[in-house]
Amino acid sequence: METAAVAASGAGRRIMVAVDEGEESLHALNWCLANVVSPAGGDTLLLVHARRPRPVYAAMDSAGYMMTSDVLASVERHANAVSAAAVDKAKRVCADHPHVKVETMVESGDPRDVICDAADKMAPDLLVMGSHGYGFIQRAFLGSVSNHCAQNCKCPVLIVKRPKE
Amino acid sequence: METAAVAASGAGRRIMVAVDEGEESLHALNWCLANVVSPAGGDTLLLVHARRPRPVYAAMDSAGYMMTSDVLASVERHANAVSAAAVDKAKRVCADHPHVKVETMVESGDPRDVICDAADKMAPDLLVMGSHGYGFIQRAFLGSVSNHCAQNCKCPVLIVKRPKE
């Protein structure tokens, strides 16, 4: 669609955008920047990311591999790196729109709870998200996070789908 | 929130808004007019309304009342009047925003199908709706229409909730 932008005639709005490691949320973020955010400036994007919670492992996994503290630390570092990369990528996208203020929130946990809690706490004017499952539950429950947030968040919820190529 | 509006920098956008007889969809329409539609003009609102489908009655209902053609015609007139009132009310709300073009679509059927089919056919840039059940399934399935459309419509879907008073 044609580039359209929001000209805020009053104080800027706070628009929460849920980001994860996938392309779907990046598409939603780009759509939001193109179609919702005011080009005149003043709006703030609150990027919310749910980091995989620290898993609880048995001392030995199914393959008989010892889950030593070194292995656990390595897994956690990887998870944190993935999270950081997702947030950084989203921030870089926003950097192309210097009139937009950006804040980030990263919390560990189920994306459904993280996003809804963040929306409750920050009371944004709008929550924007992609439609496919977030993060580690992506393949299991298509759309479950966006459905959950659409049902449970009190603010307006905008669900943006990435067209199938 | 502060009044914000969308300034379309290119061709106007086509924004579909699902309307029914309830207050929820009116609230969504007003939010859309305040926060999405361009004040500079050029945007078109496509108001979609699902009219109750013509019911199929047995010749005699459970109370033993004969469902004569007169009665059926009366019921249908009432249903059409309710539909017309819902659409008219929405159009009057839009009339306060003369820079917005308005088109209406009324189809009989289940709101989930009517709205999704309309979105498929008209390919709007955005679909806006309230969160509570539409029309005759309102009390039965809270949120089922918006959930269905959020899952099945390809366009971005914005679900606006009416705050509890």
From TrEMBL, chains A, B:
<dbReference type="InterPro" id="IPR006016">
    <property type="entry name" value="UspA"/>
</dbReference>
<protein>
    <recommendedName>
        <fullName>UspA domain-containing protein</fullName>
    </recommendedName>
</protein>
<feature type="domain" description="UspA">
    <location>
        <begin position="13"/>
        <end position="161"/>
    </location>
</feature>
<dbReference type="Pfam" id="PF00582">
    <property type="entry name" value="Usp"/>
</dbReference>
<dbReference type="InterPro" id="IPR014729">
    <property type="entry name" value="Rossmann-like_a/b/a_fold"/>
</dbReference>
<dbReference type="InterPro" id="IPR006015">
    <property type="entry name" value="Universal_stress_UspA"/>
</dbReference>
